[in-house]
Amino acid sequence: MKVLIIGGGGREHAIAWKTARSPKVQKLYCAPGNAGIAEFAECVDIGVMDFEKQVAFAKEHEIDLTIVGPDDPLVAGAVDAFETAGLKVFGPRKNAACLEGSKSFSKDLMKKYNIPTAAYETFDSSEEALKYLETAKMPIVLKADGLALGKGVLICNTLEEARDGVKTLMLDKQFGSSGDRIVIEEFMTGREVSVLSFVDGNTVKIMTSAQDHKRAKDGDQGLNTGGMGTFSPSPFYTEEVDFFCQEHIYKPTVQAMKEEGREFKGILFFGLMLTEQGPKVLEYNARFGDPETQVVLPRMKNDIVEVFEACINGTLDEINLQFEDNAAVCVVLASDGYPEHYEKGFPISGLAAFKEKEGYYAFHAGSKFNDRGEIVTNGGRVLGITALGTDLKDARANAYEAVKWVSFENKYMRNDIGKAIDEL
Q: 89-90 and 204-212: which strand pairing?
């Protein structure tokens, strides 16, 4: 098979790495890719939103399967563009990707179908939102309705912070038109868990659990980011939790989308909060999480291309999804100043060490080749350093050992990824 992957971040590097291991794949392309992906895929200079060029490339090169990685092209209709051209593509159509593309749509769907989530209200007017806050209980959560690079969620501890949050989202337009409408919801407490799943429209097969660390600084301080690190599996995701989620969240969500005429095929990401009242949905994503993918896929036993094809063909019920009985931890190496202002273009050294050691991975999130052929930094999140281990403590120790192998100017990371493991 000839396979094309759309995207160029850490998630797409992990997908490309796993796809390249499939015996079904003869040639792998990635648009636009990055310096890490270039190790085993031919990178093509086509942007993630340029559907016309992507489709033309897929036709010209007789691509057998296209995998769409990021949220923006999915929500904008990349899958629809490929299907219209008669091409095989993995991912949800535009009318299903709105489960991530619109917070208000997903909240209304959960309310309609009794899927457990936080109480909420939706606002198109900043005046109405501010009026509502006067009688609301603090802390409270503000969410931009549209896509915001995983950063459009503000947790406000005081009324003053909440007022500032409304201004940031709706008036200052920090996330552009994504903040034209906002969702204000109750603040939930508990453990967060990320659960990725494969869906074929009817069947949902969950992958192993993971936990993300969103805040920029140690101790969950600082600004929200796209994610500073992850571990898998989550020890807090028990069999009891799984049973509840299967019956009250996973299956009902897929069925609800079908009943709404929005059949979901692709990756459905469940962001959960394990509250005292039971698991509740924090958010849905319509694609692989980043950096959750970097700890989940190295533990997956299956040929991922077979699973992709089963999702497209509606035969996912025939797949026995399996994961290794081990653990993985990913520590993100970022550019100091992320997620705000940071410099790019610094040479990265030490990457060769990962080719020599089994169970260690450097997934590139923001890298490129400079004019001299050196791999240099090219983003806020630069690398996702992932290590396997017999258990979580072992994997965490391995990951923090591996981050020492890599050097670049203004390298920054959190030092407490997976610290919750120490409490067990």
A: unpaired
Amino acid, single-letter form, for residue 424: L
Based on the number of CB atoms within 10 Å of its own CB, is 411 exposed (0-12), middle (13-18) or buried (19 or more)?
middle
Spacing of C-alpha 181 from chain mean position: 23
Q: What are the φ/ψ torsions at residue 324 (nearest 5 degrees)?
A: -65, 150
- Asked whether 397 and 419 are in contact (CB, 8 A), the reply is no
245-256 pLDDT per residue, tens: 999 999 999 999
Is it true that the peptide bond before 23 is cis, omega within 30 degrees of 0? Answer: no
What's the topology of domain 191-318?
D-amino Acid Aminotransferase; Chain A, domain 1 (3.30.470)
Cα 365 from Cα 333, distance rounded (Å) = 9
Chain-centroid distance, C-alpha 32:
18
Length of the chain in residues, anyone?
424
Which residue bears the tokens 């095929």?
265
CA 403: distance to chain centroid? Answer: 22
Q: What is the CATH number of domain 328-423?
A: 3.90.600.10
- Copy the structure tokens of residue 70: 């990021």
- Among 257, 147, 134, which residue's Cα sits nearest to residue 204? 257
CB 66 within 8 A of CB 74: no
pLDDT tens figures, 340-358: 999 999 999 999 999 999 9
Domain(s) labelled CATH 3.30.470.20 in the chain stretch across: 191-318
3-class DSSP assignment, residue 238? coil
Greatest distance between any 2 Cα atoms in the chain: 61
Task: Give the model's confidence band at 424: pLDDT under 50 very low, under 70 low, under 90 confident, else very high.
Answer: low
Number of neighbouring beta carbons within 10 Å of residue 13:
34
Number of Cβ within 10 Å of residue 365's Cβ equals: 29
Q: How many other CB atoms are there within 10 angstroms of residue 160's CB atom?
A: 11
Q: Provide the β-strand partners of residue 329.
A: 231, 387
The encoded tokens of residue 230 equal 């992850």
Q: Is the pTM of this model over 0.85?
A: yes
